[in-house]
Design a protein that fits this description.
Elements lengths: L17 E2 L4 E7 L5 E2 L14 E5 L3 E10 L10 E7 L5 E6 L10 E7 L10 E5 L11
Antiparallel strand pairs: 1-2, 2-3, 2-4, 5-6, 5-8, 6-7, 8-9
The structure holds zinc ion.
């Protein structure tokens, strides 16, 4: 296994994480086994390949679980909701969920939102319900 290609990949903190034009997260897809990760990794977590291509994931996914946090943190007033979102062509991602009714039926279709101003305190990305309820597996 040749991992020298991984040495050419930019450090984790400087890899692109979103496409603000498309409004989607940008991560990695292993060329060898198709495993996905966000943020993109230099080496595939599944097979160890150093061939991981940058890919843009779908901006809509399914909220599969969530929790309400009652402890504030800088940029986030409590209570706020954190959830795990399954992207149809990507990995599970973790993020804040805004605008959700109490006790929603899961899975809940959500759309990615990106902050337009990085100077605003708080998360630079979050998810919001699309208002379309539970996704239809035939259309995702
Ligand atoms: Zn792989």
């Amino acid at each position: 296994m040749d991992l020298t290609a991984a040495l050419e990949v930019s450090p984790t903190g400087s890899r692109r994480r979103a496409d603000s034009v498309v409004g989607a997260l940008v991560g990695g897809r292993c060329v060898e086994c198709s495993a996905t990760a966000w943020p993109r990794r230099a080496v595939c977590h599944r097979c160890g390949s150093a061939e991981v291509a940058e890919t843009t994931f779908a901006p809509v996914g399914e909220l599969i679980t969530y929790t309400t946090v009652h402890v504030p943190r800088p940029g986030l007033e409590a209570p706020y909701t954190l959830g795990q979102i399954s992207l149809p062509d990507g990995p599970l991602v973790f993020g804040q969920v805004r605008g959700m009714s109490e006790e929603p039926a899961l899975p809940l279709r959500v759309r990615l939102a990106l902050s337009s101003d990085p100077a605003i305190p708080g998360p630079w990305y979050w998810f919001e319900p699309t208002g379309q309820g539970t996704p239809d597996p035939a259309t995702t």
